[in-house]
Amino acid sequence: MMIEVTDLVVAYGAATALDRVTLSVAEGEMVALLGPNGAGKSTLAGALAGLLRPASGTVTVGGRLALIPEGRQLFPDLSVADNLALGGWRSGVRDPSAVYDVLPRLAELADRRAGVLSGGEQQMVAFGRALMSRPDVLVVDELSLGLAPNVTAGLARHLAELNRSRGLAVLLIEQNARLAFELCRRAYVLESGRLVTEGESAALAGDPRVAGAYLGGA
Ligand code: ATP
Which residues form the ABC transporter domain (predicted)? Predict the structure, then answer.
């Protein structure tokens, strides 16, 4: 397994944000985690990245994990190239050329300040920064947030291509269920810190409760 989370409990003081969450992502698998605002999705991302300590339960990661955090979290005054370099810092990777091969637009933007880029370009920088560490598994917290549908679709294509060609495992944390079901064969649904349902995307998309809540009734 690339990600194995068992009975995970994470609390902020007295408030329980994740309540006995169990989920997994296998090697080379793309899995979605859906849920409304405040469900605990970013808390799970933080626990996976080792930024939050569990109150109980276990988090096991079977390879190098990289996170594309919610809201990108770039250094706006640094260039694109410098933002990328920071992504490779821990793993000692300095040369961004492999990332430019995957995301050629970043080579064109290399000298621009990250803060002046469009939302989609910034998300691409966050994507490239995560790839700098040559991850085996990528946790993507809200790929589509604030982006136009065609921009999201472009980034999603890159993600699917990396999964297909290199076996990159992905946990796609999304509010956009349509996108999540399209990209991922399997999904979990988190509400108020608890997993309420899980299964194959096709089955979930056909479940009236899930469709009603997450697909706008479509
Ligand atoms: P969103 O999609 O709005 O980002 P989310 O599903 O990612 O939501 P989290 O950000 O994980 O949800 O939040 C889960 C719960 O934990 C919420 O009730 C939130 O208010 C609370 N919470 C998150 N971060 C903190 C914090 N640092 N201190 C206290 N409570 C927090």
Answer: 3-217
Question: Could you identify the atom of ligand 1 that is nearest to the CA of residue 35?
Answer: 6
Place of tokens 């979605």: 32
Report which protein residue has its CA nearest ligand 1's atom 2: 37
Spatial distance between the Cα atoms of 44 and 171, rounded to a whole number of angstroms: 11
DSSP 115: G
Which parts of the chain fold into alpha helices (H)? 41-48, 80-88, 97-102, 104-109, 119-131, 149-166, 177-183, 201-205, 208-214
Note the ipTM here.
0.95
Ligand 1: centre distance to CA 166 (Å): 33
CA dihedral for 167, 159, 205, 4, sign (positive or negative): positive
Q: Which atom of ligand 1 is nearest to the CA of 193?
A: 14
Q: b/e for 59-74, b at 16 or more Cβ within 10 A?
A: bebbeebbbbbbebeb
* pLDDT band, residue 218 (cuts 50/70/90): very low
β-sheet with 3-12: strand ranges across: 15-25, 3-12, 56-61
Ligand 1 closest atom vs CA 190: 6
pTM, entire model: 0.93
Distance 94 CA to ligand 1 centre (A): 34
